[in-house]
Amino acid sequence: MIDRMQLIKEEILRDYIRKQLARQDKLVENKEEKLRQFIRGMLGEGVDTEPTESTGINVLEGLLNNIVPSFKQKYKMLTTTPAQRISFIKHLLSFVDDSLKPDQINDEAAEEAASERLAEEVKINVGEEGDMNLDDQALFPNIDKEDAENETGDDELFVSLEGEDKTGRDMAIESFKQMNNQITKAYSGLQGKDASLFKKYLIKNLDLHRMQAEKELPEPDDALATIPVDKL
Fold first, then answer.
1. Would you give the DSSP letter of residue 229?
2. Which residues pair with 126 in a beta bridge?
3. Cα separation of 36 and 51, whole Å?
4. Cβ(194)–Cβ(90) under 8 Å?
5. pLDDT (average), residues 117-122
């Protein structure tokens, strides 16, 4: 004979299990939606994100909004071979990593401050009749010549990774030059943990945006679209 009380208990238990499973599904769904929103925000798809608890990450978000469009454009120009794009991202991240070493930032800041002090100290004495005490050569140096000399061999300052495509390297240099001032300016205002987080997630985000750019190509490479650069 069937125990009706036992049946009732079993039905209550099943109902409880169903509710708990539904609740868990809802929690998972909410977490997945938050994760999707976060990733879309990282990839610049226009999802508004609240400020985080890290100043470094907040500064990074503002920086990425400015540099990512040009970065992705340069990457997507390299369509001859995947090797060009691999070389591009490896060189670019190497340049970024080198440029954000604390000593490098401090040296550049000190050099800029010294230049400003020198500019304030240099004065041109003008006579009563407006004659300048310095000769024309000193007052009006050949700027075009100096610029040409400074540009000569400038690319030699950038490290060339062995075995990597030269075209990708050259495009990485061009892209880095466009973003370097913005990166160093943002980074120089951060200290300690904020600076560390900024650097770490700048490199990670550039790689994520690189994978997104790969997916947007007419003929994307599956490996490049899914594998982080340090695994390529």
1. G
2. 132
3. 17
4. no
5. 52
What is the band of 38 on the pLDDT scale with cuts at 50, 70, 90? low
What does the buried/exposed string (b/e) look like for 190-206 if buried means 16 or more CB atoms within 10 Å of the residue's CB?
Answer: beeebbebbbebbbebb
The encoded tokens of residue 182 equal: 């913005």
Residue 204 forms part of a structural domain: yes
Residue 125 resides in a domain? no
Quick check: is 42 in a domain?
no
pTM of the model: 0.61
Domain extent for 73: 54-115+158-232
**Six-digit token string for 92:** 């670019």
Amino acid at 190: L
Q: Which of 3, 179, 5, 208 is nearest to 89 (CA)?
A: 208
Backbone φ, ψ for residue 116 (5° rounding) = -65, -40
> Considering only CA atoms, which of 186, 210, 202, 185 is closest in space to residue 74?
210
Q: What angle do CA 191, 192, 196 make, to 5 degrees?
A: 100
Give the distance from CA 162 to its chain's centroid: 23
Report DSSP letters for 167-225, one per residue.
Answer: HHHHHHHHHHHHHHHHHHHHHHT--HHHHHHHHHHHHHHHHHHHHHHHHTSSS--HHHH
CA torsion through residues 199, 204, 207, 212, sign: negative
Rounded Cα distance between 43 and 182, Å, is 19
- End-to-end distance of the chain based on CA atoms, in angstroms? 68
The reply to whether 151 falls in a domain is no
Longest dimension (CA), the chain: 125
Looking at every residue in the chain, the average pLDDT score rounds to 77
